[in-house]
Amino acid sequence: MRKISLLGATGSIGRSTLDVLRRHKDEFELCAAACGSDTHGMLAIVREFRPKMVALYNQKSALELSKILAGEGIKTEVLSSEQGVCECAIAPGKDGITLCAIVGSAGLPSALAAVKNGITVALANKEALVMSGRLFFDEARAHNSRVLPVDSEHSAIFQCLPSECQDTIGFCDLNKAGVSQILLTGSGGPFLKLPLEDLAKVTPKQAVSHPVWSMGPKISTDSATMMNKGLEFIEARYLFNAPDHMIKVLIHPQSVIHSMVSYKDGAVMAQIGRPDMRTPIARALFYPDRADAGVEPFDFTRAPSMQFMDPDFKRYPCLKLAMQASLEGQGATTALNAANEVAVDAFLSGRIGYPDIASVVSDVLSSERPGTVYTLDEIMQADRAAREAARKAVEERAC
Protein backbone atom coordinates (compact mmCIF):
# COMPACT_ATOMS: atom_id res chain seq x y z
CA MET A 1 0.00 0.00 0.00
CA ARG A 2 1.23 3.48 -0.86
CA LYS A 3 1.25 5.99 2.00
CA ILE A 4 -0.59 9.28 1.54
CA SER A 5 -0.44 12.52 3.51
CA LEU A 6 -3.35 14.89 2.90
CA LEU A 7 -2.75 18.56 3.72
CA GLY A 8 -5.94 20.61 3.69
CA ALA A 9 -7.89 17.47 4.54
CA THR A 10 -11.16 19.13 5.60
CA GLY A 11 -11.46 21.46 2.58
CA SER A 12 -13.16 20.77 -0.74
CA ILE A 13 -10.06 19.18 -2.32
CA GLY A 14 -9.49 17.18 0.84
CA ARG A 15 -13.04 15.82 0.84
CA SER A 16 -12.78 14.82 -2.82
CA THR A 17 -9.45 13.11 -2.14
CA LEU A 18 -10.93 11.14 0.75
CA ASP A 19 -13.69 9.94 -1.56
CA VAL A 20 -11.09 8.64 -4.04
CA LEU A 21 -9.21 6.92 -1.19
CA ARG A 22 -12.41 5.20 -0.02
CA ARG A 23 -12.72 3.62 -3.45
CA HIS A 24 -9.20 2.22 -3.26
CA LYS A 25 -8.68 1.12 0.33
CA ASP A 26 -6.41 -1.74 -0.71
CA GLU A 27 -3.99 0.58 -2.55
CA PHE A 28 -3.52 3.59 -0.26
CA GLU A 29 -2.98 4.21 3.43
CA LEU A 30 -3.76 7.67 4.77
CA CYS A 31 -0.81 7.98 7.14
CA ALA A 32 -1.16 11.71 7.95
CA ALA A 33 -3.57 14.60 7.53
CA ALA A 34 -3.59 18.30 8.34
CA CYS A 35 -6.05 21.19 8.41
CA GLY A 36 -6.47 24.63 9.94
CA SER A 37 -8.89 24.49 12.88
CA ASP A 38 -11.73 22.13 11.93
CA THR A 39 -11.65 19.85 14.97
CA HIS A 40 -14.82 17.94 14.14
CA GLY A 41 -13.90 17.53 10.47
CA MET A 42 -10.54 16.07 11.43
CA LEU A 43 -12.15 13.89 14.10
CA ALA A 44 -14.34 12.27 11.45
CA ILE A 45 -11.27 11.60 9.29
CA VAL A 46 -9.36 10.04 12.19
CA ARG A 47 -12.27 7.81 13.14
CA GLU A 48 -12.60 6.53 9.58
CA PHE A 49 -9.01 6.33 8.31
CA ARG A 50 -6.97 6.05 11.53
CA PRO A 51 -3.88 7.96 10.32
CA LYS A 52 -0.79 7.70 12.51
CA MET A 53 -0.58 11.49 12.87
CA VAL A 54 -2.63 14.61 12.19
CA ALA A 55 -1.92 18.31 12.61
CA LEU A 56 -4.04 21.41 13.06
CA TYR A 57 -2.54 24.88 12.67
CA ASN A 58 -4.68 26.13 15.53
CA GLN A 59 -3.21 24.92 18.84
CA LYS A 60 -6.51 25.20 20.73
CA SER A 61 -8.24 23.04 18.13
CA ALA A 62 -5.39 20.52 18.24
CA LEU A 63 -5.67 20.27 22.02
CA GLU A 64 -9.44 19.77 21.79
CA LEU A 65 -9.00 16.97 19.24
CA SER A 66 -6.29 15.34 21.33
CA LYS A 67 -8.59 15.18 24.35
CA ILE A 68 -11.45 13.67 22.33
CA LEU A 69 -9.21 11.00 20.81
CA ALA A 70 -7.75 10.13 24.21
CA GLY A 71 -11.26 9.67 25.55
CA GLU A 72 -12.05 7.29 22.69
CA GLY A 73 -8.82 5.37 23.03
CA ILE A 74 -7.59 6.36 19.56
CA LYS A 75 -3.79 6.62 19.49
CA THR A 76 -3.37 8.97 16.51
CA GLU A 77 -0.70 11.55 17.34
CA VAL A 78 -2.02 15.12 17.24
CA LEU A 79 0.42 17.91 16.32
CA SER A 80 -0.11 21.65 15.93
CA SER A 81 1.27 24.78 14.28
CA GLU A 82 3.23 25.04 11.04
CA GLN A 83 5.87 22.68 12.36
CA GLY A 84 3.27 19.98 12.95
CA VAL A 85 1.87 20.39 9.44
CA CYS A 86 5.39 20.09 8.00
CA GLU A 87 5.89 16.87 9.96
CA CYS A 88 2.72 15.51 8.40
CA ALA A 89 4.00 16.60 4.97
CA ILE A 90 7.06 14.35 5.23
CA ALA A 91 5.28 11.42 6.93
CA PRO A 92 4.75 9.28 3.77
CA GLY A 93 8.48 8.94 3.04
CA LYS A 94 10.10 8.86 -0.39
CA ASP A 95 7.80 6.12 -1.68
CA GLY A 96 4.65 7.98 -0.68
CA ILE A 97 2.63 10.96 -1.86
CA THR A 98 1.83 14.25 -0.16
CA LEU A 99 -1.23 15.98 -1.57
CA CYS A 100 -0.90 19.70 -0.87
CA ALA A 101 -4.31 21.40 -0.75
CA ILE A 102 -3.86 24.04 1.94
CA VAL A 103 -5.22 27.32 0.58
CA GLY A 104 -2.95 30.34 0.22
CA SER A 105 0.57 31.14 1.32
CA ALA A 106 0.10 28.99 4.44
CA GLY A 107 0.62 25.93 2.25
CA LEU A 108 4.11 26.86 1.03
CA PRO A 109 6.32 25.68 3.93
CA SER A 110 4.77 22.21 4.10
CA ALA A 111 4.86 21.75 0.31
CA LEU A 112 8.55 22.70 0.30
CA ALA A 113 9.19 20.32 3.21
CA ALA A 114 7.75 17.43 1.20
CA VAL A 115 9.81 18.35 -1.87
CA LYS A 116 13.03 18.62 0.15
CA ASN A 117 12.43 15.09 1.44
CA GLY A 118 12.15 13.61 -2.04
CA ILE A 119 8.43 12.85 -1.72
CA THR A 120 6.08 12.88 -4.70
CA VAL A 121 3.97 16.02 -4.36
CA ALA A 122 0.45 16.19 -5.78
CA LEU A 123 0.07 19.96 -5.89
CA ALA A 124 -3.30 21.69 -5.53
CA ASN A 125 -1.85 24.75 -3.78
CA LYS A 126 -1.15 27.17 -6.64
CA GLU A 127 0.19 29.83 -4.28
CA ALA A 128 3.24 27.66 -3.57
CA LEU A 129 4.42 28.18 -7.14
CA VAL A 130 3.19 31.77 -7.39
CA MET A 131 5.48 32.60 -4.47
CA SER A 132 8.42 30.25 -5.00
CA GLY A 133 8.22 28.66 -8.45
CA ARG A 134 11.91 28.66 -9.32
CA LEU A 135 13.05 27.67 -5.82
CA PHE A 136 10.35 25.00 -5.66
CA PHE A 137 11.46 23.22 -8.80
CA ASP A 138 15.15 23.64 -8.06
CA GLU A 139 14.54 21.84 -4.76
CA ALA A 140 12.43 19.20 -6.52
CA ARG A 141 15.25 18.50 -8.96
CA ALA A 142 17.90 18.49 -6.22
CA HIS A 143 15.96 15.98 -4.09
CA ASN A 144 14.49 13.89 -6.91
CA SER A 145 10.91 14.81 -6.00
CA ARG A 146 8.20 14.38 -8.63
CA VAL A 147 5.58 17.16 -8.82
CA LEU A 148 2.15 16.32 -10.24
CA PRO A 149 -0.51 19.01 -10.83
CA VAL A 150 -3.94 18.61 -9.22
CA ASP A 151 -5.60 21.90 -10.21
CA SER A 152 -8.13 20.86 -12.87
CA GLU A 153 -6.69 23.17 -15.52
CA HIS A 154 -3.09 22.20 -14.95
CA SER A 155 -3.95 18.53 -14.77
CA ALA A 156 -5.70 18.99 -18.12
CA ILE A 157 -2.62 20.62 -19.66
CA PHE A 158 -0.44 17.89 -18.16
CA GLN A 159 -2.64 15.21 -19.74
CA CYS A 160 -2.48 16.93 -23.13
CA LEU A 161 1.33 17.02 -23.16
CA PRO A 162 3.59 14.20 -24.39
CA SER A 163 5.20 11.86 -21.85
CA GLU A 164 8.61 13.55 -22.11
CA CYS A 165 7.03 16.75 -20.78
CA GLN A 166 5.06 14.93 -18.08
CA ASP A 167 8.30 13.38 -16.84
CA THR A 168 10.16 16.71 -16.69
CA ILE A 169 7.60 19.00 -15.04
CA GLY A 170 9.22 22.31 -14.15
CA PHE A 171 11.92 21.91 -16.78
CA CYS A 172 10.12 20.54 -19.85
CA ASP A 173 11.04 21.76 -23.33
CA LEU A 174 7.73 22.79 -24.90
CA ASN A 175 9.39 23.94 -28.12
CA LYS A 176 11.04 20.55 -28.63
CA ALA A 177 7.68 18.89 -27.95
CA GLY A 178 6.11 20.94 -30.76
CA VAL A 179 3.87 23.03 -28.50
CA SER A 180 2.84 26.42 -29.82
CA GLN A 181 0.48 27.58 -27.08
CA ILE A 182 -1.15 26.58 -23.79
CA LEU A 183 -4.84 27.49 -23.67
CA LEU A 184 -5.89 28.01 -20.06
CA THR A 185 -9.67 28.00 -19.66
CA GLY A 186 -11.82 29.60 -16.98
CA SER A 187 -15.57 29.78 -16.42
CA GLY A 188 -15.68 33.53 -15.93
CA GLY A 189 -17.33 33.08 -12.54
CA PRO A 190 -20.77 34.27 -11.43
CA PHE A 191 -20.47 37.81 -12.84
CA LEU A 192 -19.64 37.03 -16.45
CA LYS A 193 -22.76 38.81 -17.72
CA LEU A 194 -23.38 41.24 -14.90
CA PRO A 195 -23.38 44.90 -16.09
CA LEU A 196 -20.06 46.49 -15.15
CA GLU A 197 -21.76 49.25 -13.19
CA ASP A 198 -23.39 46.63 -10.93
CA LEU A 199 -20.07 45.11 -9.80
CA ALA A 200 -19.85 47.74 -7.07
CA LYS A 201 -22.99 46.24 -5.51
CA VAL A 202 -21.71 42.65 -5.37
CA THR A 203 -21.98 41.01 -1.95
CA PRO A 204 -19.76 38.27 -0.48
CA LYS A 205 -22.69 35.84 -0.68
CA GLN A 206 -23.00 36.47 -4.41
CA ALA A 207 -19.24 36.22 -4.98
CA VAL A 208 -18.93 32.77 -3.40
CA SER A 209 -21.85 31.33 -5.40
CA HIS A 210 -19.87 29.80 -8.25
CA PRO A 211 -22.05 28.60 -11.17
CA VAL A 212 -20.07 25.38 -11.77
CA TRP A 213 -17.53 24.44 -9.10
CA SER A 214 -18.01 23.85 -5.36
CA MET A 215 -15.12 25.60 -3.59
CA GLY A 216 -14.28 27.43 -0.38
CA PRO A 217 -15.04 31.17 0.04
CA LYS A 218 -11.53 32.42 -0.76
CA ILE A 219 -11.09 30.42 -3.97
CA SER A 220 -14.68 31.15 -5.02
CA THR A 221 -14.05 34.88 -4.65
CA ASP A 222 -10.81 34.53 -6.61
CA SER A 223 -12.79 32.79 -9.34
CA ALA A 224 -15.29 35.66 -9.44
CA THR A 225 -12.52 38.24 -9.86
CA MET A 226 -10.52 35.82 -12.05
CA MET A 227 -7.53 36.34 -9.80
CA ASN A 228 -7.69 32.56 -9.53
CA LYS A 229 -6.99 32.35 -13.26
CA GLY A 230 -4.21 34.89 -12.88
CA LEU A 231 -2.57 32.76 -10.21
CA GLU A 232 -3.03 29.73 -12.46
CA PHE A 233 -1.38 31.64 -15.31
CA ILE A 234 1.69 32.10 -13.11
CA GLU A 235 1.50 28.50 -11.89
CA ALA A 236 1.38 27.23 -15.49
CA ARG A 237 4.55 29.18 -16.31
CA TYR A 238 6.51 27.30 -13.67
CA LEU A 239 4.90 23.88 -14.05
CA PHE A 240 5.44 23.74 -17.78
CA ASN A 241 8.50 26.00 -18.09
CA ALA A 242 6.49 28.27 -20.38
CA PRO A 243 7.17 31.91 -21.26
CA ASP A 244 4.24 34.27 -20.72
CA HIS A 245 3.52 34.68 -24.43
CA MET A 246 2.87 30.94 -24.79
CA ILE A 247 -0.07 31.00 -22.36
CA LYS A 248 -3.48 32.31 -23.41
CA VAL A 249 -6.49 32.63 -21.08
CA LEU A 250 -9.91 31.80 -22.54
CA ILE A 251 -13.33 32.24 -20.95
CA HIS A 252 -15.29 28.97 -21.27
CA PRO A 253 -18.48 29.25 -19.17
CA GLN A 254 -19.54 25.61 -19.48
CA SER A 255 -16.29 24.27 -17.88
CA VAL A 256 -16.40 21.18 -20.10
CA ILE A 257 -12.94 21.65 -21.60
CA HIS A 258 -10.61 22.04 -18.65
CA SER A 259 -7.71 23.36 -20.76
CA MET A 260 -5.99 22.71 -24.07
CA VAL A 261 -2.58 22.52 -25.70
CA SER A 262 -2.08 23.81 -29.24
CA TYR A 263 0.70 22.27 -31.37
CA LYS A 264 2.77 23.67 -34.21
CA ASP A 265 1.16 21.37 -36.77
CA GLY A 266 -2.27 22.88 -36.10
CA ALA A 267 -3.55 20.14 -33.79
CA VAL A 268 -5.19 21.12 -30.51
CA MET A 269 -5.41 18.58 -27.70
CA ALA A 270 -8.18 19.15 -25.13
CA GLN A 271 -9.02 17.38 -21.88
CA ILE A 272 -12.78 17.08 -21.54
CA GLY A 273 -14.80 15.88 -18.58
CA ARG A 274 -17.30 16.69 -15.90
CA PRO A 275 -16.34 19.51 -13.51
CA ASP A 276 -15.37 17.13 -10.71
CA MET A 277 -12.05 17.42 -8.85
CA ARG A 278 -11.90 13.69 -8.26
CA THR A 279 -10.68 13.21 -11.85
CA PRO A 280 -7.44 15.26 -11.53
CA ILE A 281 -6.91 13.95 -7.99
CA ALA A 282 -7.07 10.34 -9.17
CA ARG A 283 -4.83 11.16 -12.12
CA ALA A 284 -2.14 12.41 -9.73
CA LEU A 285 -2.50 9.62 -7.18
CA PHE A 286 -2.38 6.82 -9.75
CA TYR A 287 0.02 8.36 -12.28
CA PRO A 288 1.04 7.00 -14.76
CA ASP A 289 -2.00 4.69 -14.54
CA ARG A 290 -5.69 5.56 -14.43
CA ALA A 291 -8.33 4.31 -12.01
CA ASP A 292 -11.96 4.74 -11.03
CA ALA A 293 -12.51 8.16 -9.47
CA GLY A 294 -16.28 7.84 -9.10
CA VAL A 295 -16.86 10.30 -11.95
CA GLU A 296 -19.24 9.39 -14.76
CA PRO A 297 -17.90 9.73 -18.32
CA PHE A 298 -18.87 12.88 -20.16
CA ASP A 299 -22.00 12.39 -22.28
CA PHE A 300 -21.52 14.22 -25.58
CA THR A 301 -25.15 13.65 -26.61
CA ARG A 302 -26.22 15.88 -23.72
CA ALA A 303 -23.40 18.36 -23.98
CA PRO A 304 -24.30 22.05 -23.84
CA SER A 305 -23.24 24.40 -26.59
CA MET A 306 -19.68 25.43 -25.82
CA GLN A 307 -18.59 29.07 -25.84
CA PHE A 308 -15.15 30.63 -25.80
CA MET A 309 -14.20 34.28 -25.51
CA ASP A 310 -11.32 36.53 -24.55
CA PRO A 311 -11.45 37.93 -21.00
CA ASP A 312 -12.54 41.55 -20.58
CA PHE A 313 -9.94 43.23 -18.36
CA LYS A 314 -12.46 45.91 -17.35
CA ARG A 315 -14.53 43.14 -15.80
CA TYR A 316 -11.50 41.22 -14.55
CA PRO A 317 -8.77 43.72 -13.58
CA CYS A 318 -7.28 41.18 -11.16
CA LEU A 319 -6.43 38.89 -14.06
CA LYS A 320 -4.55 41.68 -15.82
CA LEU A 321 -2.69 42.56 -12.60
CA ALA A 322 -1.58 38.93 -12.23
CA MET A 323 -0.35 38.74 -15.81
CA GLN A 324 1.59 41.98 -15.36
CA ALA A 325 3.13 40.70 -12.12
CA SER A 326 4.16 37.53 -13.92
CA LEU A 327 6.24 39.60 -16.32
CA GLU A 328 7.93 41.43 -13.43
CA GLY A 329 9.09 38.29 -11.63
CA GLN A 330 8.90 36.39 -8.36
CA GLY A 331 8.93 39.45 -6.11
CA ALA A 332 5.89 40.91 -7.85
CA THR A 333 3.96 37.64 -7.90
CA THR A 334 4.65 37.13 -4.18
CA ALA A 335 3.37 40.65 -3.46
CA LEU A 336 0.34 40.05 -5.71
CA ASN A 337 -0.65 36.90 -3.83
CA ALA A 338 -0.18 38.46 -0.39
CA ALA A 339 -2.16 41.59 -1.26
CA ASN A 340 -4.96 39.53 -2.75
CA GLU A 341 -5.27 37.34 0.34
CA VAL A 342 -5.59 40.42 2.56
CA ALA A 343 -8.05 42.12 0.19
CA VAL A 344 -10.28 39.07 -0.24
CA ASP A 345 -10.41 38.54 3.52
CA ALA A 346 -11.43 42.18 3.96
CA PHE A 347 -14.13 41.83 1.31
CA LEU A 348 -15.55 38.61 2.78
CA SER A 349 -15.71 40.26 6.21
CA GLY A 350 -17.59 43.25 4.76
CA ARG A 351 -14.85 45.82 5.28
CA ILE A 352 -14.33 46.74 1.62
CA GLY A 353 -16.37 46.47 -1.56
CA TYR A 354 -15.89 44.01 -4.40
CA PRO A 355 -14.09 46.43 -6.79
CA ASP A 356 -11.74 47.37 -3.94
CA ILE A 357 -10.08 43.95 -4.16
CA ALA A 358 -8.38 44.90 -7.42
CA SER A 359 -7.68 48.44 -6.16
CA VAL A 360 -5.87 47.17 -3.06
CA VAL A 361 -3.77 44.74 -5.11
CA SER A 362 -2.95 47.49 -7.63
CA ASP A 363 -1.86 49.87 -4.84
CA VAL A 364 0.45 47.23 -3.35
CA LEU A 365 2.02 46.34 -6.68
CA SER A 366 2.63 50.04 -7.33
CA SER A 367 4.30 50.60 -3.95
CA GLU A 368 6.02 47.29 -3.22
CA ARG A 369 9.06 46.63 -5.42
CA PRO A 370 10.86 43.77 -3.68
CA GLY A 371 13.05 43.06 -6.72
CA THR A 372 14.57 39.61 -7.06
CA VAL A 373 13.50 37.07 -4.44
CA TYR A 374 14.58 33.45 -4.41
CA THR A 375 15.24 32.03 -0.94
CA LEU A 376 12.37 31.20 1.41
CA ASP A 377 13.48 34.00 3.76
CA GLU A 378 13.41 36.53 0.92
CA ILE A 379 10.00 35.27 -0.21
CA MET A 380 8.48 35.49 3.26
CA GLN A 381 9.96 38.96 3.81
CA ALA A 382 8.37 40.16 0.57
CA ASP A 383 5.12 38.49 1.61
CA ARG A 384 5.06 40.26 4.99
CA ALA A 385 5.84 43.66 3.47
CA ALA A 386 3.07 43.28 0.89
CA ARG A 387 0.55 42.23 3.55
CA GLU A 388 1.34 45.29 5.64
CA ALA A 389 0.93 47.55 2.61
CA ALA A 390 -2.35 45.79 1.75
CA ARG A 391 -3.70 46.29 5.27
CA LYS A 392 -3.01 50.01 5.01
CA ALA A 393 -4.74 50.12 1.62
CA VAL A 394 -7.73 48.30 3.10
CA GLU A 395 -7.99 50.75 5.99
CA GLU A 396 -8.07 53.64 3.53
CA ARG A 397 -11.10 52.06 1.85
CA ALA A 398 -12.80 50.45 4.86
CA CYS A 399 -16.59 50.73 4.79
Give a description of the structure:
By secondary structure, the chain is α/β, with parallel strands linked by helices. 46% of the residues lie in helices and 15% in strands. The strands form 2 sheets. A 7-stranded parallel beta sheet has the order 4-3-2-1-5-6-7, with helices on both faces. Helix 6 packs parallel to helix 11 (227-239) and helix 10 (217-225) packs across helix 14 (330-348). The chain is globular, with a radius of gyration of 20 Å. It starts with a strand and ends with a helix. 51% of the residues are buried. The model has no long low-confidence stretch (mean pLDDT 95).
Poorly predicted residue ranges:
none
Report how far the terminal alpha carbons are from each other.
54 Å
Helix content: 40-55%
Strand content: 5-15%
Give a short account of the largest sheet: 7 strands, parallel
Which descriptor suits the 3D outline? globular
Structural class: alpha/beta
Output the radius of gyration.
Answer: 20 Å
Order of helices and strands: EHEHEHEHEHEHEHHEHHHEEEHHHHH
Integer average pLDDT? 95
DSSP summary: helix tally: 16
What is the number of strand segments? 11
Strand order of the largest sheet: 4-3-2-1-5-6-7
